[in-house]
Amino acid sequence: MSFCLLAGCSNTKVSENVSCAEKDWGEFGRQMAETGREVRTIDKYKNSCSTFDENDLDAYLDGYSRGLVTFCTYDTGYQHGSKNMEAQLICPYEIRQDYVKGYNAGKFKFDSTISDMKRLRDAEERDGYVPLMGREADEQ
Amino acid sequence: MSMERIIYLLAVYSTIVTGLLLSVSVGAKSVDNPIVIKLDKPVYVVPRFTGKFRQREVSVAPDEYEMADRLRTMLDEGNAQAVLDELAQFYDIELSVAMIVLKAQIYFSLEEYSEAEKTYKAALARQPHLVRAHTDLAQLYMLTDRPLQAREHFANAVSFGANEAHIHGQLGYLNITHFGPYAAISAYQQAMSLEPENKQWQQGLLVALSQAGMFESAEALIVDLLAVNPKDIDLWLNKAAISMQQDDVNGALEGMEMALLLGDEDRDNLKSTAQLHLQVGSYSRAVELIKNDLDLHQLNMSVINEYLTWLQQVNMYSDIESVLEHIQPRLHELSANDKSIFYYHQGQAFAADGQDQAADETYQQAIDLDPSSGRALLRYANFLQQEKRYDKAELLYMRAEGIDVFTKNALLGKAQLYIEMLDYRAALEALRQAYARYPELVGLKDNIEVIESIIRAKGN
Fold first, then answer.
1. Given CB 3.0 to 4.6 Å as the disulfide criterion, which of A77, B2, B112, B317 pairs with B107?
2. C-alpha to C-alpha distance for A22 and A90, rounded to whole angstroms
3. Which residues of A touch B97 (CB under 8 A)?
């Protein structure tokens, strides 16, 4: 992962393997929040980086807070729910509601889609529809 | 120059000198002695954080309910530090604003003001309209003597919906002390509308209205308040103060006398009431009050000196004697310097009464007790001069000349003495010394010329 960062590999996932020499803890914090990581992701850096100090922690937390503002939205929640992803419960209580509403709406859409597909399949089975895979097997 | 003109100029000169000598005393109406009515200033006693830990405007997150129950138990047991230790395990971002405010409140109650401030600010960063955080932070700033910041947060609390009397009152207090009275009137009115019997708000509003020059409103308020509390000493004193500001001496006296009747024993107020009575000419009441003051309080010669000087200004020498007789049995309580002042006044009273022998002895006592009392030296010298005891008078003038504050008057007194002794050369020398040292005495130039003419005429 570190090599990819250095070599500029394209990667949609944010690496958590940030070296201790990485100075922009604020940016790191923002990225962690925007990708739904818990705030305690920083703990392993606190413990393992000898240069990590109170200012770095403050910068991380500031960045994380800014990232939460981007993350904790209806749209993000909807996206997660509609893809049947697990809800990311990192949002502070006072801005959690929008994410939860969006998630529930997305999840409802996902569940509705699954129910529709199941109903369609059940109906076709009742009408004698042979699933494509079985027919092909017969023809073969 | 004719002899008539010389005599005329000398007469004018004598008047100047006498006036200078008398100007050593200070009268009841002088600008150095304004009438002061002692009132309670608007104050605000900032309550220590003693309230229940509560978070009215924010609520605990559902996933914190269990922790909240645990923390409540710890608080009920008085274990605030344990609550802090538990909350310290979390980053602030993991806690609800309610929990952060709780943390701040605990820091506040433990007087860890720096941590409390930081934590309240963290809460406000997430919820800027949080009234409780604004009011608590404002209280903290009051306690740590940062009034401008306190005012800002009280103002925020009010604009975000806080409507408690103490918040309006505190805002009023901060406005009046830092921004002038107009900014405070409305705040104190709001506080009073919620707690009309609270003396802090009453006093604050009265002061705000008075300072803003809204005397009619202030008086109307006092009348209103007195109708409910006719025996309130502070209200009567406030009434007196407002009357004074409108130069209504009789109104001021009414207020002061009512306060006295109701039991006010403040020395400054007694003194001011006596002063007012002297101004309106009710001397016997003034003397009665002076004696009351002397009976009620420790003898303070600077206060007594003021009283006696006022009485002297209006030539009430019999009253001066009466006051001195009142003090006489307690003379042993005074220091030597203070006794000197006592005898100085007594000497003046005797002299005014024509009791020259007694005046002589008493003045002598005054300067024996305090040889550096320039005032006593000059007064005694002037007395001896009138008695034509020039040698001793000259000595006393020379002694007074050595005391900086009295040098001018001593030189002028000496010059006048020499003129009376017809020793014009000595008079000229004294006048020249005075003029050289005090060139602002422009009238002296003419007098010097007159004396020079006399000397030239005598020489011819």
1. B112
2. 24
3. 92-94
Which CA distances in Å does B226 have to B33, B137, B185, B207, B221?
A: 30, 37, 20, 16, 9
* Residue whose token pair is 């604004």: B134
Separation of alpha carbons A68 and A38, rounded Å: 10
Q: Does B421 touch chain A (CB under 8 A)?
A: no
* Cα distance between residue B316 and residue B310, in whole Å: 9
Asked if A139 reaches chain B (Cβ–Cβ under 8 Å), the answer is no
Residue B11 has what pLDDT? Answer: 43
Looking from the CA of B89 toward its CB, the CA atoms found within 13 Å total 6
Averaged pLDDT, groups of 10, chain B, 460 residues long: 43 40 38 64 52 58 90 90 93 93 93 95 92 94 94 93 92 92 94 93 92 93 92 93 91 95 90 89 90 86 86 87 91 92 93 94 96 95 95 96 93 94 93 92 89 86
Contact status, residue B29 vs residue B119, Cβ threshold 8 Å = no
* Chain B touched by A134 (CB under 8 Å): no
pLDDT at position B363: 97
pLDDT at residue A129, rounded to an integer:
59
Determine contact: A71 vs chain B, CB below 8 A.
no
0.90 exceeded by pTM? no
pLDDT confidence of residue B17: 39
Residue B351 CA to residue B376 CA, distance in Å, equals 13
The per-residue pLDDT for A47 is: 80
Distance CA B222, CA B228 (A): 10
List Cβ neighbours of B173 (8 Å cut-off, separation of 6 or more).
B42, B43, B44, B184, B204
Distance of alpha carbon B16 from alpha carbon B206, whole angstroms: 47
For residue A68, list chain B residues with Cβ-Cβ distance below 8 A.
Answer: 93
DSSP A90-137: TS-GGGHHHHHHHHHHHHHHHHHHHHHHHHHHHHHHHTTPPPHHHHHH
Report the Cα–Cα distance between both ends of chain B, in Å, rounded: 13
Ranges of chain A with pLDDT below 50: 1-15, 134-140
Structure tokens that stand for B90 in this block = 């979390």
- The token pair at B350 is 């005797």
Structure token pair of residue A38: 């818990």
The set of residues, in sequence order, having a beta carbon less than 8 Å from that of B404 and lying 6+ positions away, is none
Hey, how many other C-beta atoms are within 10 angstroms of the C-beta on B199? 14
The pLDDT assigned to A22 comes to 60
What contacts A81, CB < 8 A, 6 or more positions away? A87, A102, A103, A104, A105, A106, A107, A108, A109, A110
Tokens coding B402: 């050595």
- Find, among B116, B98, B100, the residue nearest to B48 by Cα: B116
Q: How many residues does chain B have?
A: 460
- Rounded to whole angstroms, how far apart are CA atoms B390 and B420? 9
